[in-house]
Amino acid sequence: MLKLGISRDPLDRIQAFSRRYFEFFDLQRGWLLETDSVREAQGQETRLRRSLRLLNAPAPLLVPGRAAGATEWYRGASSLLEQAREEFASQGYTVHKPLENWLRSRLEARRSDLYVWTERMLSAADSEPGDAQPAGAEPPLPHRMLRDALDGYAALGIPLEDALPPTVSDWYARVAGFHT
């Protein structure tokens, strides 16, 4: 399955499809095309979409409805999109491949904000009312969201040791192995 789309902020868009985008998408095979304008991006997307029309597929069931990503999923389009990527590169477009490298650079740029952001997230999650979780139970949503965000950094090989407050580091060490 492949996803075609445009975004002013691809990292946020990718995260909208799955909090665990680093497992959901193939970051080694994925790529981004950088254009100078939204209009140009829309034109290229329309051209690609038309060429892939016969390969259109329903969105994966795991894509949340709120992501509004029900269209522009394709099956069996890898070779056609790889040809398009090569064509874009030969025309002088900036093509970010693999997607993993682009994502890593974006997360590294946000790394300096992790200390304050994670401290606030953990504090807010811990202050939410609720029953104590039984041993082995799935963590509450705010904790899963924080864990998934930190797992994204870890999955892309971005060190977290000096980027987190001690309370968050301790918490993350306890929950890092719990994935649902």
With strands numbered from the N-terminus, the spatial order across the biggest sheet is: 1-4-3
Task: Please identify the oligomeric state.
Answer: single chain
> How big a fraction of the residues is strand?
5-15%
Radius of gyration: 19 Å
In one word, what is the shape?
elongated
Number of helices: 8
- Secondary-structure element string: EHHEHEEHEHHHH
Indicate the structural class: mainly alpha
User: Main beta sheet, described?
Assistant: 3 strands, antiparallel
Per DSSP E runs of 2 or more residues, the count of β-strands stands at 5
Percent helix: 40-55%
Average predicted confidence as pLDDT: 90
| Domain module tally | 2
Uncertain segments are none
Straight-line distance between termini: 22 Å
Q: Would you mind describing this structure in some detail?
A:
By secondary structure, this protein is mostly helical. 50% of the residues lie in helices and 7% in strands. The strands form two sheets. The protein has a three-stranded antiparallel sheet, with no helix packed on it. It has a two-stranded antiparallel sheet with strand order 2-5. The protein is elongated, with a radius of gyration of 19 Å. The two termini are 22 Å apart.
Set down the secondary structure blueprint.
Blueprint lengths: L1 E2 L6 H8 L3 H4 L7 E3 L3 H14 L4 E2 L15 E2 L3 H13 L3 E3 L2 H12 L3 H14 L13 H15 L10 H10 L5
Antiparallel strand pairs: 1-4, 2-5, 3-4
Helix pairs in contact: 6-7
